[in-house]
């Protein structure tokens, strides 16, 4: 993992925790609750400074953080309540609800800001092809009956014009049989995904990728493509004397010629250019630890990008986090109903860290998108009614609001302790899944 990758992981986890705990802190101060400690990370302590009544701390374990409020029964099991006006427990239920949900709201707000910015700055991106290639030797695509070169025309009678529509329409109907209208050569045929296949491993993945022209999109600075002058819109027509028909053919040649100089021809309008290019070797290992290095020249797909108005960007910013939350709800539903296994559905800190590092290596747009995903997911899981999480505390408040009085201190402490035990067990289980996924 690169140094930039490590920094990107530290920053991502740090901003997740900081924004979340800052929400609790600001809401508590707003509601007149004394905040005794604001900590990023868990002990041992690295840095600490007391400002006013609050001790601000940075600790060594960057896996979370907390805001310690006076009169708050939390996972520290502190039951010291005096009834003072500045204590959390002395405030009305509605004020405590604002304090408890503020962390989730801040994470959700940051996700909305990120996606609004990405939508406005990047515009709407579309991949103008629906012609496919199967990506695996076995998988749901072959069971459906797809073949390389098939062009998807419609899904459940909804016409498909862009590649991006395929995944959305498929997933929206994945719990039902899905009918694909496909053009194969000169024939128009129908293929079907059967809903019972969802229970199979990776049964929610189509295992297909687009076949698109070898047209240059974004170029990466200090990579071979930019060094020889390739520009957006150039069409690569020949590599090593071999005619190139599409992006996949081009990629195969480049990946198999890491650090090997080769001839390249490309077309720009009516002109044809020729040069020599040496794909940069990207070091990688397969699942068995064997060398799986490959070549790259530093170009991206030539997507269609159209500007997005500010108001449309704001709308997209609000919609995208809730799409991510919906996907997580579906994932939990499948796990608890036995359709999918926990191993397929859960990701621990190791897997997340790798995803963050990979996103950072691909560029700032991918990295910001990953931050948006993580903030959306954190907001969702934190609001679940699990003791020791924000949603668990919110559940206590809802019970208090209905009953007109809080549960007894002893009852709340017992529930918190049981909740912490269950939560720690879940964390250990996810770490076990993560370890197996990453190393075995």
Describe what you observe in this structure.
With 440 residues, the protein is an alpha+beta fold. It folds into three domains: 3-118 and 374-439, no CATH class; 132-210, Pdz3 Domain (Roll), CATH 2.30.42.60; 224-306, PDZ domain (Pdz3 Domain, Roll). The chain is 44% helix and 21% strand. It has helices at residues 3-30, 93-122, 140-144, 163-172, 224-227, 247-255, 310-336, 342-345, 349-362, 364-382, 390-403, 409-439; strands at residues 35-51, 54-69, 124-126, 132-134, 151-155, 158-159, 178-184, 187-193, 208-210, 235-239, 242-243, 262-268, 271-277, 280-282, 294-296, 304-306. It has a four-stranded antiparallel sheet with strand order 6-5-7-8. The chain starts with a helix and ends with a helix. The mean pLDDT is 87.
- Tell me the Rg in angstroms: 26 Å
Strand arrangement in the largest pleated sheet: 6-5-7-8
The fraction of residues in strands falls at: 15-25%
Largest sheet: 4 strands, antiparallel
Features:
alpha+beta; 440 residues; Pdz3 Domain; elongated; 12 helices; 16 strands; 21% strand
Would you spell out the secondary-structure blueprint of this structure?
Layout: H1 3-30, E1 35-51, E2 54-69, H2 93-122, E3 124-126, E4 132-134, H3 140-144, E5 151-155, E6 158-159, H4 163-172, E7 178-184, E8 187-193, E9 208-210, H5 224-227, E10 235-239, E11 242-243, H6 247-255, E12 262-268, E13 271-277, E14 280-282, E15 294-296, E16 304-306, H7 310-336, H8 342-345, H9 349-362, H10 364-382, H11 390-403, H12 409-439
Antiparallel strand pairs: 1-2, 3-16, 4-9, 5-6, 5-7, 7-8, 10-11, 10-12, 12-13, 14-15
Helix pairs in contact: 1-2, 1-9, 2-7, 2-10, 2-11, 7-10, 9-10
């Amino acid at each position: 993992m690169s140094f930039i990758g490590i920094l990107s992981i530290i920053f991502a986890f740090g901003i997740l925790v900081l924004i979340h705990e800052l929400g609790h802190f600001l809401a508590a101060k707003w509601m007149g609750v004394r905040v005794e400690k604001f900590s990023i990370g868990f002990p041992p302590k690295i840095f600490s400074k007391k400002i006013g009544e609050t001790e601000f701390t940075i600790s060594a374990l960057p896996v979370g953080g907390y805001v310690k409020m006076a009169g708050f029964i939390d996972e520290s099991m502190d039951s010291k309540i005096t009834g003072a006006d500045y204590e959390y427990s002395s405030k009305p239920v509605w004020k405590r609800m604002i304090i408890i949900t503020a962390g989730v709201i801040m994470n959700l707000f940051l996700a909305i800001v990120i996606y609004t910015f990405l939508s406005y700055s990047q515009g709407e991106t579309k991949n103008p092809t629906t012609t496919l290639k199967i990506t695996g030797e076995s998988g749901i695509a072959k069971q459906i009956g797809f073949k390389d070169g098939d062009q998807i025309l419609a899904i459940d009678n909804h016409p498909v014009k862009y590649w991006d529509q395929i995944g959305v329409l498929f997933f929206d109907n994945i719990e039902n049989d899905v009918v694909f209208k496909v053009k194969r050569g000169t024939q128009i045929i129908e293929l079907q995904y059967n809903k019972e296949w969802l229970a199979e491993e990776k049964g929610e993945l189509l295992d297909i990728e687009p076949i698109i022209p070898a047209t240059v999109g974004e170029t990466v600075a200090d990579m071979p493509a930019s060094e020889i002058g390739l520009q957006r819109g150039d069409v690569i027509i020949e590599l090593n004397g071999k005619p190139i028909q599409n992006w996949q053919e081009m990629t195969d040649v480049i990946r198999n010629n890491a650090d090997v100089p080769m001839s390249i021809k490309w077309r720009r309008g009516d002109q044809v250019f020729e040069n020599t290019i040496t794909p940069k070797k990207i070091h990688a290992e397969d699942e068995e630890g064997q060398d799986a290095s490959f070549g790259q020249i530093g170009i991206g797909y030539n997507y269609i990008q159209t500007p997005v108005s500010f108001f449309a960007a704001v709308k997209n910013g609000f919609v995208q986090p809730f799409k991510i939350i919906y996907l997580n709800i579906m994932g939990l539903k499948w796990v608890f109903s036995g359709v999918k296994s926990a191993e397929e559905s859960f990701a621990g800190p190791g897997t997340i860290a790798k995803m963050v590092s990979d996103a950072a290596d691909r560029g700032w747009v991918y990295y910001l998108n990953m931050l948006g995903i993580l903030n959306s997911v954190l907001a969702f899981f934190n609001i679940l009614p699990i003791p020791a999480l924000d949603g668990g505390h919110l559940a206590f408040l809802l019970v208090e609001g209905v009953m007109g009085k809080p549960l007894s201190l002893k009852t709340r402490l017992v529930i918190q302790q049981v909740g912490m035990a269950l939560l720690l067990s879940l964390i250990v289980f996810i770490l076990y899944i993560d370890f197996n996924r990453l190393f075995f």
